[in-house]
TrEMBL record:
It comes from the Eukaryota. InterPro entries: PsdUridine_synth_cat_dom_sf, RluA_PseudoU_synthase. Keywords: Isomerase. The keyword Isomerase applies. It comes from Schistosoma mattheei. This is Uncharacterized protein. It catalyses: a uridine in mRNA = a pseudouridine in mRNA. GO terms for biological process: pseudouridine synthesis. GO terms for molecular function: pseudouridine synthase activity; RNA binding. Belongs to the pseudouridine synthase RluA family.
Length: 134
């Protein structure tokens, strides 16, 4: 997930010149510094530029779907096997004949309060299909 998060951040900041709110790492190509926000956004968020460094990254994974292979019958163990055993404990529909557990595990998470509040301040509304995030 970490690589995907960085790829999204880099493409938005450098490819589209639209860095994510609170992304202080990818807002500047040459140096690490707090994000510079337009005056109108500073006013809407009721924050001074000198305090922008305290705005957290507004990037949210609303859902994750995990497809996990069934337990290995080989004697070799990987560093991730403990994690996979934990995930398998949530699902009893797999068998060793299947490549993956039958039903991927699905995790959903609502938007954090600060994220939801800032969307409201800015005047952005979630699309209808994301209303479950409230």
């Amino acid at each position: 997930m970490k690589c995907i998060k960085h790829q999204i951040r880099a493409h938005l900041a450098f490819g589209l010149q639209t860095p994510i709110l609170g992304d202080h790492k990818y807002s500047h190509a040459e140096y690490l510094a707090p994000q510079r926000l337009p005056k109108s956004l500073l006013e809407v968020l009721n924050i001074r530029q000198s305090k922008v460094r305290y705005i957290s990254l507004h990037l949210h994974a609303s859902s994750l779907h995990l497809r996990v292979p069934p337990s290995s019958s080989s004697s070799s163990s990987s560093n991730n096997e403990g994690f996979f055993d934990f995930v398998r404990s949530f699902d009893n529909s797999h068998s060793n004949n299947n490549k993956f557990i039958k039903n991927p595990l699905k995790f959903t998470a609502p938007l954090p309060n600060h994220f939801r509040g800032n969307l409201k301040r800015i005047g952005l509304k979630l699309p209808h299909y994301l209303k479950y995030l409230h």
